[in-house]
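If it is no trouble, can you show me the amino acids of a protein and the tokens describing how it folds?
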Amino acid sequence: MTADELSAAVRRFVEETVLPHVDEWDRRDDLPDSALRRLVELGLPGAMVPTEYGGRGLTVADLVPAWRALSHGWISLTGAVNPTGLATALLVRHGTEDQRRRWLPLIGRGEALASFSITEPQAGSDLGRIETSARARDGGGLVLDGEKRWVAGGASSDVVFLMAEMEGSEKPSCVVLPADGRGGASWQVGELDKVGYRGVESAAYRFEEHESPGAEILGGHEAIGSGARQMLDALDVGRVNVACRALGIVDRCIECAVEECTTREVGDGLLGQHTHAQLRVGELIARRAGVEALTQKAAAAVDERSELARELSTSAKLVASDTAVWAVDAAARLAASRSYAAGDELARLRRDAPQTEIGEGANDALLLALAKPALDRQ
């Protein structure tokens, strides 16, 4: 299946399956197994696995239309496939050949899904405050202690890529942790409730002397202490994914606004005949075009491993997410009180859009990160 064919298949899935049921799924906080299976059948989670490992070898730029189309239906679906994409990027860019051969074929065939974990209760997005620890286990593997939060897909994934401080190193490492033993006394799992972005598992972990014979450092012993660099590198991919979530929300807001303008009667005519409504729809379209261009530019830079990839992917995520929150408000002003009804689509989008301002790095933290290099050059 080519990238164009994948995007077309995703659009059909969204129109035929997602949009008719998304309000019910959101209300139940449930991403149905049948929907997740369809994502796997389409090959979305492992789409970036290189062909030499049995995957499709699609690029980030190839996937932008599919991620955006999926988000047009529900950003939770796009979020559900994102951690496995991040894991693929980590393995391809930083894994040993043995690690690639162990995991990439499984991911490419849809037989393994992954989680990605940095956040901790006391640290948030601050990588310098990571406290989860790992040490070598007698006989091989690792022993883990600590807590993690907001692990997307963390209750059912087959492997977790998480940040931890390896004994003997002052810098954190990326641990590849198979799911064996999850849910037991030494690896406790809780589920975090959310206002929006529902349906996606958001797990909390507590490790207490958890022994994992299969756990290892991404990239092998030589990569101990390289976790921050590795995971930030993968987050370039994730931030484009989040920008696509935001774009999907903007797409849907424009549709809601146009429908409101062309069906709602105000005075002697339709709402869309009034100048203020036309201005609002025009601004939505113009701002979307800017976000779309920036997201595509960021995706190309990430694929090229350009020195601008970090700046562009971060900027795309920031601008897209802020635009999504603004777009919901703009569309809601046209819909007025109806947009505040519990079952209205704009009410759901009002809860979902702020997730894009938090996912893959809170926006204020990212703004500081963008500013620092520029200020340091002075």
User: Anything to note?
Assistant: The radius of gyration is 21 Å. Residues 227-263 form the longest helix (37 residues).
